[in-house]
Amino acid sequence: MSAAESPERKPGVRGFFANALRPKKSRQTLRKKTPVDGALGVEEVPAVPKLAPLEAHREKVRAAGVHIDTQRGENLDYTTILHKLGLNEPFDQDDSHHDFEHDNRPPGEPAVASLSSELWGCIVQYLNPRDAASLALASRTLYMRLGWLPFQILDLEENYQYKIEFLLFLDRRFPHHLLCFPCAKYHRRTQEGNERLRPADVLNPLFNCPHARNPLRPQPRHRITHNYVMPFSFVQLAMRAHRLGPRYGLSADSLCRRWKRNNWSFTTRYLIHKGHLLMRVTAQTYADPGLAPAAQRLLLYSRDDYWPYFSACAHWRDGELMNVCKCALTHVPIPRDTAGLQGLEHRMKDILAASSTQGSSSSHMITGCGKCRPKRRCPDCPTEYLVEIKLTEDRSQIKNVRFRHAIVVTRWSDLGDGTAPMSPEWAACNGYGPGYDSFATMGNRAISGIFESAFTSDTIPGQRVISLNPKGVKKGEAGNDWY
């Protein structure tokens, strides 16, 4: 196209630059297209849906009929499950106020206040002392109607059991206190967070109790071994920390101990399983071969109270426990006399037998007999025993390290839920309370199996469990078989 045909093009240098800098058609400003019908160009807003997206999703799932499993009744709508986890359910177990935020019920104080004190007094007469005191403590209005009388009745000597049950309800409100059962009161913890198990001859009070030195009202405790007991206060601390939080007590691992006394070595370990405190006590000592009956008694019994040095329940005299230990001691191999030519021949046989097994000590391994090999379960309390003869390393002499046989007695027990000394397991292990049938209560699952399955590093031989007292004879100290 020539310059004459284009009216916008200018001649000369000035026209050249003007035409070069002229904006092209592609760089022109975009403009909105005018509506055909002549209406204003306003963007249309979509209509508001009748249901929220989550509710619409629920309606869709309900219509499909796949939100509930017909076999197990489970909710298969994962969107609803995640929504409830994120918005509705509290994640902190102590966040109890979350449930009351959505409580739309009208307050019940006017309805309670509408009844007279005489009518509330008639209602309380149908309740036991524990429930009557709990009702009076429920609200200020009920306390004004009932007064101090329910608490006075609860404080009577004959209502001691009801008072303990009432105080157990208040355990959550006193993290810095412990319930003293002889006093039926909460005492301030004097070693809060630093409580440690000590031997029985070491004074170790956890709180200041006026009946601490009263032999008529002793603190509940359980004998672990000779000169070592388990006060019930430590069971309280372990279970309170498990149920309510660490500031209420101690962890179960902090109760574990190792010590030596009277040529015996002891190791204790604890485990909380389904709200119960399980205890394992392992005791061992070196056993010489060919012990006479009197030497066996000196090895097994304490001369102070004629109890076994190892851990035992209150029913150890009724049954075969001590006979099993004495039977295991008879299996300690007696070394052969190596004097003379005959002894040299036996020594050569032992060397050849050891070389054929590549230096193993299989000739010194003891499996026991049908009497002392199985685990024994006490029929009157949740306690199991295992008696073994093991080849252990004796390091009593630094320069001369040798291997010796040792008797190892392992005890597993269930100490209960730690709420009160009247719990069935604690009362059965200490020999008081109502009758306890361990085989009917625990069934086929052994306490030792439950305990050892929680620790992969510990193993026990697979032995069957039989009764510690198969004949059911209960003579106690009057019998002669235990000694």
From TrEMBL:
- Region (Disordered), start-end ranges: 1-33
**Do you know which InterPro entries this protein is assigned to?**
F-box-like_dom_sf
Q: Which domain of life is it from?
A: Eukaryota
Ranges of Basic residues compositional bias? 22-33
UniProt name for this protein = F-box domain protein
| Stretches with biased composition (Basic and acidic residues) | 1-11
